[in-house]
User: What shape does this take?
Amino acid sequence: MNDFAPPPVQDAKASFWASLWALANPGRFMSFSARLLPWLWGATLITMAYGLYKGLFVAPADYQQGDSMRIMYIHVPAAWMGMFVYATMTASALGTLVWRHPLADVSQKAAAPIGACFTVICLVTGSFWGKPTWGTWWEWDARMTSVLVLLLIYLGIIALWRAIDEPLRAARAVAIMTLVGAVNLPIIKFSVDWWNTMHQPASVFRKGGPTIHPAMLEPLLVMAVAFSLLFAAIHMVRMQAEIIDRRAERLAMRAAAGEG
Amino acid sequence: MFGHHTPYILASYGVAATVLVLLIVASYRARAAARRRLADLERMGNEP
Assistant: This one.
């Protein structure tokens, strides 16, 4: 064995970081994403169609909630995605501030409206579920209020991107705001344990495993995969738009400087 | 279809579909607008 060769685990780690940095080149990202996008959309459509079919027509109705629990097949994945997208943005914020990754702020800017949309879907579908189940559209409950705060943070981040013209300054300000807002994620997750709320406690990601019957768990997980693929596809399109827009902006500034 | 829960279920899925379709359309429109802008600037840059 060659004494100078690094251990295999380090090799794998190094190649992972090397491939991540290779994609940091916007040109390389554009060609990579152009090849990946049709496959992503195809996989999204197939999993979404399968999940909807299973959730709406195959899964049994709940013995207490009846058919209204079918709303869970979009409400729960949307809630997970609202939090997952914010976690992705937090990682991107670190990428902007710590590693100065060239695509980190592009990723963050592209993700914010998608996360906001998933959070809106979560809140609205939760309301449609709450009326027949709890007898109310809205309650200032810890879980619902913390998710509403998440939506407000998303809107604040989108507003901040628009308020600052210079991209580098905007990216740093948004990254700091995103990191501060990340404190809301554990509050959302554990709100049902820390406070006495109307919202049911965790029934999938919990110690001791899921408490949901497999016939209901399967469509829920398939829809979660479909929403994740959908996020990946829309995120890529928005990142492409942002990269092209920045290229155009640089060209316009160069043209203006040349005229001056 | 789902008894007295039908309006709530249809409204939920309808709102989710509308929000997601609008988001997808807006994203593709933004990319198309950026491409047009870049093409215009490149054409202007190539003009003598």
Notes: Chain A has eight helices and no strands. The CA atoms of residues 61 and 67 of chain A lie 5 Å apart. Chain A has a mean pLDDT of 88. Residues 214-259 of chain A form the longest helix (46 residues).
